[in-house]
Batch of 4 targets.
Target 1
Amino acid sequence: MLFVFSFDFDSFAFNIAFLTHATAYFLIMPNIPINKESLAFMQHLSGNNNRAWFEANRQDYETAKANIEEFAGALLERMRSHDLIENVSGRKSLFRIYRDVRFSKNKEPFKTHWSGHFTRATKQLRGGYYFHLEPGNSFLAGGFWNPSPDDLLLVRKDIEAGHEEWRSMLNKPKLKKTFGGLLGDQVLTAPRGFDKNHPAIELLRYKQFLLRHSVSDKVVTSKDFVDVANDVFMNLRPFFDLMSDILTSDGNGQVKS
């Protein structure tokens, strides 16, 4: 936060102007575009996914990784202007490039995309943001990838009792235009304990609650992509606000301890 003080010598009064983090940020924070070479590195890696090639091109990897870290840092600062985020830095938000191949038939050692996530701070703010940068398959997403059984039951009970509110939220113009509709794994019929003929059975069947916005390579490497990403993530808020209310309330309007 930034405080600006001015002193009126005639009235001997201090006038204090308060600038929010958001205002101060946009005054001083530079734009960080993603270089075309950073995205292209993953294209090259996808055709040479082996340790020998990677080591021979490690300097290109380190250069690209530094660019993605800077981008993530710039995006993090923008997001802090409208949400509470617990990530300490852009660098710490990135996922590692190394794949866990212990239980996979695919033994290629490296991921062929850049990705990172931002976690909302405090127990009262639920939901997470995710970015995935891959040639021809980049997207920005958010939601609840693996809710606990207790959380999943709370969400389903809320849908059962108030599906009109859910439909209203999902049909908000900005959210619908940005993300289309809800995504995620579903059970085949009705969840245990819920009526298969419920009018919102298509919502009750979800096991994950995700929203996704695809972006082209041209947009990813544009000079204002960090602002595009920030705007997309801002449009998740009606969804996150509803889910946070559901998952932090005891059902009687009281916040759970």
Target 2
Amino acid sequence: MPVRGLLKISCQAQNQIFSICGSDELCTERQTLFETAGHGQRRQSGEAGRYSEFILLVHRNRVLFQRTGGKGLNITVPHKTEVTKLVDKISDRAATAGAVNTLSFRGGEVHGDNTDGIGLLRDLDVNLGVTIEGANILILGAGGATRGIVGPLLEMQPASLWIANRTLGKAQILADHFSKTGPVSACRFNVVPVSTKYDLIINATSAGVHGEAPPYPSAAVSSSTFCYDLSYGLKPTPFCTWARESGAAHSVMGWGMLVEQAAESFNIWRGIRPDTAPVLKQMVIAA
């Protein structure tokens, strides 16, 4: 299956190559981000880099990518679940999530990992000061993005975590899957319990990608609710606009999560975790 992505070429001695693979829209946004915000970090580390568009046939050309110097792939929607079939070894967090967003090549084997959960937690906790322990959390959507974040969120011991979806079946499957990890429940969008005061609402649907209006109940939002969209864009996403109009205390897009999960992926590849603060300072992540 053809996968469009962006290729970063590092001009250090080892000439290592890393790439981003995903939808055209997301890769174009990431190219704009990393060519500007990432310039300072590359300069500080002595790296010179550039991005170019390429087409990667994942199933047939993975080996070719490795032979040309490829060291790692960062995978985004809609390929995270499909890529789990390509790996020789998978990390515990990726196996639990059922989704891979980071590939690395070691000793002739393909290793799959998932840095979405830790990226989200670092953004919420370190960058935004959101407390997860004891919080009531509502996640909107039950796809691959939700799979990657439920486990890490539950490990932070929230008071409750609801997964809402258009159809109850998919949400219930996830709730059952993570039931031993913490207090997780499932419901449809139109029956989200509004008697609960939600401290954190996370949008994990594709509404931000495709631009449609999110069909979420405004009654779930209070003046103390922190709303976080896993999607991001150069202007406020429909979810962030909805959250702000519904009276949320804060409405934030997922640029910070993008940077933090990318830093974690880079650490997997290179054994060095980049300082994300300078990058985040150059970005407007709040709607």
Target 3
Amino acid sequence: MIGRFESSHNNDVRPLLFDTNGCSAHFHANIEIVCVKRGAIEIVINGSRRVLRGGEVSVSGPFDIHQYALIEPDSVGRVLIIPLTYAAKFGALTSKKVLEDYFFGGAAFNEIETLFGVLERHIDGDDLTTEGIIDAVLGIVLKNLPFGRAKSVKMEKDVMRDCLTYINANYREEISLEGLAKEFGYSPNHFSKLFNTYLQTGLREYVNTLRADDAAALIRGGADVSAAAFDSGFDCMRTFYRVFKTRFCMTPREYVNRREALLEQAAPDPSVERDLGCCGS
């Protein structure tokens, strides 16, 4: 799954617990735990790729770049996002350390699944209970994952985090592999391999996907197709049509027509945007 880089969870002040439908590459300042209950989910964290099946868990630390894709249609993955304000003890125990692995299973899965169920009943309640349950979850994580001082991994993660931040702020402008490689101190060939490892896609495809999502948002806001294409950073209509159709499984004109038909059926609301969707979503 390729999509828009997001860091919106930086603003979360309470833990979130929900089922994942998959997500594109993103990072935020929180801890994110995925508990795969059934099926198979492909998870990539900082370039480390694994297909998790029922009974396995993944953990992304603060600013780890991660993405998920459901491999089987009946897959269920429960996600817990933990703001760092709820992980003070865990943070103190792991300060100046980094995760060396992100995946585990076995009996620890059953313990975490049970705690997720307890947390779901108390997540909107008092902070003391919520923090106690989260401490228990993170205690299991601490016992089942190796932590170390993997400086090279941390450096690469920081480079890719800064790279994604730059791309997200500048995708409407010209962005080249050579320019980014020079900016971050790598050869173009090495930077291309690093980007593909962490994002599971090439730079051009990633940037064009951001532009396609931006163009779709502009179209939903009333812009005509040509203006949306050029304002989102495309310099060629042929490329725009190709990327847009790949992203949304329809041409821009079909996208406009479908949105207009949906708006005629009901007053505008967020579900209209969800119904338009993306390929594979």
Target 4
Amino acid sequence: MAADEKAAFEEGPKPRTSIAEVRAYSGMGVLLVPTARAVGYSLSALRASLGDGGSGTPPVVQLRPPLVPARRSGRQRLAHGASRGIGNRVRMSQALEGRQIMAHSFSNLLTHVIFSTRGRQPFLTPDLRPDLLAYMGGIVRKLRGKTIESSAPLDHVHCLLSLPATLSVAEALRVLKANSSLWVHETRRLPAFAWQTGYGAFSVSQSNVPAVLKYIRGQDQHHRRISFQEELITLLKRHGLSYDERYLWE
């Protein structure tokens, strides 16, 4: 090992790692310097512990130090309403050094989501609706997703979303509702505005997209005949989902 590499090995930080993990790495024929450093062993002690000090000892390879989570120096709200600190929670996985991200990995994860205002209050008036839906579309883009279609009758929202495989529906809707609600409070001075706690989320096949688009675009006409409560229960039954109506509207 070169002198500068040995110095980096001896002087680097020592996070907690067991000798068993070092032995596991050595079984692959390579001893990783950051892992060796982790148990606080000197290079010579590790060679003596893991081999006979001769040709059978695994080679030591210098890799970059392990990634350390970024220090939070104060949370900031992202542009277009992404939640505070979301950069630390929703991010693309990084490939280990020496490995490549799997080629030819594709996803088309389409979800029809529906949620109402708290208490089904008619907050979504024609003057608020266009700006609110546009802002919500910006939040979804910040999450690396896409809003294919959205509609907002007076007391609830429908969206057809395409979400990345690395993001759960629950997390996407938590960010979407929290930040759009905050935007309404700050820009429209509606302190009573809030979304319901729950939501409905239904997977959509590509072949069924035209029907879902027609359904979302026809909400105004649809709700001349049926209430939001009746609509949601119909969707739950259609998708074979059980529910307890005592808690359905929270």
